[in-house]
Amino acid sequence: METRAESHLKQEEEESGQKEQDNSPRTHKCSECGMGFRYPSHLSRHMRTQTGEKPYGCEKCDKSFSHLSHLKTHLRIHTGEKPYRCEMCSRQFSQQYSLNVHLRTHTVEKPYRCEECNRQFSDFKKHIRTHTGEKPYRCEECSRSFSTLSHLKIHMRTHTGEKPYRCEECNRQFTTSSSLKRHVVRSHKEQKPYFLKSAH
Asked: Which residue stretches belong to region Disordered (predicted)?
């Protein structure tokens, strides 16, 4: 049996598919800004941007979303699903946006200029947090927050004890590649160059 959420998503997808061909008038008006929409569901979705309502809650954590599609994308953090693959190096991503940002590492494209510091970036969202101080990624174990998901993942190793980087010379293991590099420089200077090796 189809759930209410699945039914709603199906309706959104059907209406999105009609969007290109449909030239019907935008009769459903927003009472706040006057914007018009062809479908009542599109108006309802827009109204949440005005009210801040977030009716779609994640059952795995305390995050809520204004759109069902945003919840669906968020759930990939919990399931580990990564449907977007880079054709150049086979890395996989949970969001199309993340893949697009990654692709710029192959082209060295930096299309975003920061007005605060005038530097250019391939991922402006991540950089702007250095100015705003925003830390949207919170550790569920100790409530510390981080500006990037990668920093949260590294931090989580302090709770799990995971040490994925191993020194090939002495077999000591480390939580980060930078810790391994530091160790090799200090303890095995004559063995350079060295290689990072996963402990798994």
From this structure: 1-29
- Tens of pLDDT along 110-156? 777 888 888 877 677 777 888 888 888 888 888 889 888 888 888 98
Distance of CA 154 to the CA centre of its chain: 15
In this predicted model, what pLDDT tens digit does every residue of 62-120 receive, in sequence order? 888 888 888 898 888 888 899 999 888 888 988 888 888 788 778 777 777 888 888 87
Going through 7-130 in order, the beta strands assigned E by DSSP cover 28-29, 36-37, 56-57, 64-65, 84-85, 92-93, 112-113, 120-121
- What's CA 171's distance to the chain center, in Å? 33
Q: DSSP assignment of 136-161, as one string?
A: -EE-TTT--EESSHHHHHHHHHHHH-
Q: Is 25 left (phi over 0), alpha (psi -120 to 50) or beta?
A: beta
- CA–CA distance, 84 with 71 (Å, rounded to integer): 17
Cβ contact 69:12 at 8 Å: yes
Can you give the pLDDT at residue 7?
47
